[in-house]
Amino acid sequence: MDFFTQKFTRREFLKLMGLGAVAVALPNSLVKAALTDFSEGSWVRITRYRLYVFAEASEKSKVQDLLKFDQLVQIKDTLTVKDSKGKEHPWLKIGEDAYIQPVFVQYVETHRNVSTVPIPEGGCLGEITVPSIDAYYKPRGTFAKRHYYYSSTHWVRSRVYDEFGVPWYELPDDMNGASYFVRAYAVRLVPAEELTAISPEVPPDQKRIKLDLKTETVTAYEYDKEVFSTLVSTGLAEGSTPLGTFKTHRKRPYRRMVLQSGDRNVDYDLPGVPWVSYITMSGVAFHGAYWHSNWGYRMSNGCINMRSPDAKWLYRWCNPTVPADVEYLVGETGTRVDVVYEM
């Protein structure tokens, strides 16, 4: 597989990422930043339908502009501001007198992919490597039916070519079986060596995970020695992330997660949630999250949201190990997980 990063001209960037309409919608002060080369700095995708831009790194300052869902913005600087109680809060500078809070944003990159490696008969795992990509019911469809986002993972069933010889990947929906097609440049085929177990020599009973709901941290131990720790985001509602001892008994490399309660404030439909390690039969799991970056604060419906690279590490480290050609695995046992609230 040939995997590379490419710089784009402004025209190419608009064409590839569908930013023509975005450029019109962006505030004037931000248009130039949004259309410059990704290599010049960090970029974020706005994941909320409205996100205020403040004149200073304070919610009490003047509102300068309004960003909209899926807009791409370049980050000029990151800073930390203390509130009246001395608590620190991160802010992102996106221009002169322009600041946003990094809660409903996703840090993104753009990597174009080229591969001629045959797709295995049973399919293989793929990862989205652009900020967003349109998905259609057929190659070169007229109207996009979905959008898949950076770092989300999907099963690749086949590679097909349209009438112009452009490659597309067929990505089946893991809930209803329907096929969606996306341009192949947006998907990186995940090689099998990336899915091998981490620390397989450590006996299963010598691996342990601690999730502390007070500090919103996950810590992994081998022989009671800390080997990994990161901030996470657990359930907003009390008890939605349950206290107790559990096992990572079920795992899958991707999952469409849906909640349809009738309350649009809490409903969601999230295809391609990456690196899912369940701890309960009701679906509470460790997994990557591409819809916010508010690590260290409660944000979820009960699951343990993580940065995608962190969720991938935990997925590979905890038991059972999921083979590269398997979409879902239930093991006889798993790694112990202690969910606590330490005073």
3D structure, described in words:
The chain has 343 residues and is mainly β. It folds into 3 domains: 2-105, no CATH class; 113-190, SH3 type barrels; 195-340, L,D-transpeptidase catalytic domain-like (Beta Barrel), CATH 2.40.440.10. Helix content is 9%, strand content 40%. It has helices spanning 10-17, 20-25, 28-35, 308-317, and strands at 2-3, 43-46, 50-54, 63-68, 72-74, 77-82, 88-95, 98-100, 105-108, 113-114, 124-128, 132-135, 146-149, 153-156, 158-161, 167-172, 179-183, 187-189, 207-212, 217-222, 225-231, 244-247, 250-259, 268-278, 285-288, 304-306, 329-330, 336-340. The strands form 9 sheets. A 5-stranded mixed sheet has the order 21-20-19-28-22, with no helix packed on it. Strands 26-25-24-23-27 form a 5-stranded mixed sheet. A hairpin with a 6-residue loop joins strand 24 and strand 25. It is globular. The model is unreliable at 1-40 (pLDDT under 50).
